[in-house]
Design a protein that fits this description.
Elements (H helix, E strand, L loop, with lengths): L9 H8 L45 H7 L5 H28 L3 H21 L8 H26 L13 H10 L3 H27 L5 H20 L7 H23 L6 H4 L24 H9 L4 H27 L5 H20 L9 H26 L3
């Protein structure tokens, strides 16, 4: 799994964070050369990887995941690291999906649901391990799914965001503008202007990074460190010169200059909430609310799921694999019902149905969640069970309303 990547340690992260965190994010995760697509076909520890593309084996994950797996050989610890990161990436994907769907008309929603079903089907095919599979196969399946979810979340978030102008324009100093005007198109003078302004903006950004790094440790600081590492990665990716010719070199310098200037202004307005302050009067808003009815707690599920749980010997990875399979089955049933409703002609009844379904999802997301930063495996499995029950009950409810089974 990811522990073979040679990820940087915490000391490297702190040093490079103070240098604007450009180079100390977790490297793109790659499956080891003996990794396999833990697919619906029987995978063994000796299969060679046959993924269709890099989205199954490479992706951008949080530096915290890199720190978690760095130098670790214990399978249980590696799986716990993977579960925590997968929960984080799944939440990103859920948020991104809701944002994208909210801006689509009915035809576009139907098309999106179709692509979503294809994506899920392909992910399940290559990133699923049998509940009784050995630990190595489970780990590879987990990392495969992690990369797929992270890449999907990135793609949908990029689709829903407004155009990013932080690479092309920024509030730069008046003396830099005068310097560029006085250069009159002379490349060497333009490069000198860029270098002088960049040194200033880099110093401004470093001061803000140092200020935030000196603040108290806590979830807010961890999230900012992850965000800053992503910012550094994006800057390196988009501000690399296309060639060593003077034109592309000047463009790259301008890109980097804009990014640093914008980031310095952005961080200047940022204050990280200390842990003690976060535990104040509004802390209850972040706690899982008490579930209002039994639709969250019990449902009629497949005998196959019950048998899987009984055969798991209460081992957490095996229990999670059982739950993942049952949840995918129930979600596919629900997706088919939703797709049928979306395809119907527009009407008030259809609008009311869609509103009710959206409210149902909001309630499910509110009551069937867990915090991977503060909660453990028990809470994770409980949240998974809650979601399985909700989806299965919703399918039964909707089928009963139409006389279907």
């Amino acid at each position: 799994m990811g522990h073979e990547r040679g990820l940087p340690g915490r000391r490297c992260a702190v040093l490079l964070l103070c240098a604007t965190l450009v180079g100390c994010q977790a490297s793109s995760s790659t499956a080891s050369t003996d990794a396999t697509p833990a697919a619906t076909h029987e995978a063994t520890a000796h299969d060679a990887p046959r993924y269709p593309d890099a989205s199954y084996s490479e992706g951008r994950v949080r530096p915290a995941y890199g720190y978690c797996v760095d130098g670790v050989d214990d399978a249980a610890t590696l799986q716990a690291c993977g579960r925590e990161e997968l929960a984080y990436q799944q939440q990103r994907l859920q948020d991104a999906t809701r944002t994208v769907v909210a801006g689509l008309d009915d035809a576009a929603k139907a098309a999106f649901l179709a692509t979503e079903a294809d994506w899920r089907r392909d992910t399940d095919r290559y990133c699923t391990a049998a509940a009784q599979a050995d630990v190595g196969v489970m780990q590879r399946a987990q990392e495969c799914r992690l990369m797929r979810v992270a890449n999907r979340a990135d793609a949908l978030l990029a689709q829903s965001r407004p155009a990013d102008t932080s690479f092309t324009q920024a509030p730069l100093r008046a003396q830099f503008i005068r310097c560029v005007q006085d250069a009159r198109g002379m490349n060497d003078k333009l490069m000198a202007c860029d270098a002088t302004e960049f040194a200033y903006q880099e110093k401004q950004l470093a001061a803000q990074v140092s200020r935030l790094m000196a603040g108290p440790d806590g979830p807010a600081k961890d999230r900012w460190m992850d965000e800053q590492a992503y910012w550094g990665e994006d800057t390196e990716k988009h501000c690399a010169p296309a060639s060593d010719h003077i034109g592309p070199t000047l463009d790259a310098m301008s890109c980097r200059l804009n990014r640093y200037a914008n980031r310095a202004v952005e961080l200047q307005a940022l204050t990280l909430t200390p842990v003690a302050a976060a535990a104040g009067g509004d802390a209850e808003d972040d706690m899982p609310a008490r579930r209002p009815d039994d639709s969250y707690n019990k449902a009629t599920l497949r005998p196959r799921y019950t048998a899987c749980v009984e055969a798991s010997d209460a081992v957490t990875p095996a229990l999670q694999a059982c739950g993942d399979e049952e949840l995918r089955y129930q979600e596919d049933r629900l997706a088919a019902i939703v797709a049928t409703q979306v395809a119907r002609p527009d009407s008030k009844a259809k609008d009311d149905w869609m509103d009710a379904q959206a409210a149902w999802w909001a309630d499910t997301d509110r009551y069937c969640t867990w915090d991977p930063r503060t909660e453990g495996q028990g809470q994770m499995l409980d949240a998974q069970s809650c979601r399985i029950n909700r989806v299965a009950n919703r399918v039964d409810q909707l089928n009963a309303a139409t006389g279907q089974r």
